[in-house]
Fold this protein.
Amino acid sequence: MKEQLLAKFRELYGEGASLFTSPGRINLIGEHTDYNGGFVFPGAVDKGIMAAIRPNGTERVRAWSLDMNEASEFGLGEADKPAQSWARYIFGVCREVQKRSGRIGGFDTVFAGDVPLGAGMSSSAALESTYAFALNELWQCGIDKFELVKIGQATEHNYCGVNCGIMDQFASVFGKRGNLIRLDCRSLEYEYFPFDPKGYRLVLLDSRVKHELVGSPYNDRRASCERVARVLGQEFLRGATMEQLDAVKGQISEEDYKRARYVIGEECRVLDVCDALGRGDYETVGRRMYETHWGMSKDYEVSCEELDFLVEVAEACGVTGSRIMGGGFGGCTINLVKDERYDDFIAKAREQFAARYGHEPKVYDVVISDGSRRLE
Ligand code: GLA
């Protein structure tokens, strides 16, 4: 990827590019808890976005997407929003950096990625983090890593129409090889957990069913949670109990009740999984993953037939834990599998999924990797 990127950069803009990269992420557990002020448990992966970039001494950005084979050119002002959706991420980052430091200029850039789009692995966060990190370095803005994370999140909110939480950008910027990150999304306190489950593997099965989060049910889910939190007199759902929720059942819609029930359960599951990991108790980790899946499917209603099917296949193959990962509405499952069951599970999942849906899921072994960085 690096060579292709530099070759294209040379062809379009000449020499002198710096290279930056940021990863996508997995999340072991803690889904839709981030915007509820709760805990998440993600890690960065060995797939991400890479960008070649060089200041061009103007007030304009000239960008080329290698994957789309498409150019975009835009200015740095609020009114200069580009037409291409991929370019809006870069534009949004430029705007958010300027709001915080006001000190960047135009640049030329080529970027490419190997984090699958729409798989629930946060390709967009990888893109935002790459440019936030790069602009901060190249113009020496002095923005700290927490603020880089918020730049990515604000880009989604203000320029891409997704009212997301902070997990994806945090994992992308703060990722550390071999470690998951337990993040408290209310205080932003975080802790690295070395993750090397002996005798088990983490594998993703990508259904290749794509979700579209913009203007979407994702924002509706968040709105449901915020309504319930308001009725409970809290800023976030974080910390609410089922007793409290049941006490206000008559004041909220049945749908909002189910959404909140999922979040309250998920909150307990994340903490439970952290404890279980400490004891090396992967059976409990796995059980909680299945519970998360069916909570996301039945109460939060962000799964889909294909993902439910993959989880059922996992269950039938004796996989320790399996669930839909990320925002939902398609994407992939994350699976915790005993070494000795791995081959059988992958073979059956491929075969049975293809027989039903006409294509095989893609299989990605998870390698937990480092966060945003400059490449030599
Ligand atoms: C998407 C969002 C995250 C988070 C997850 C669900 O990936 O970007 O902020 O809410 O969905 O856990």
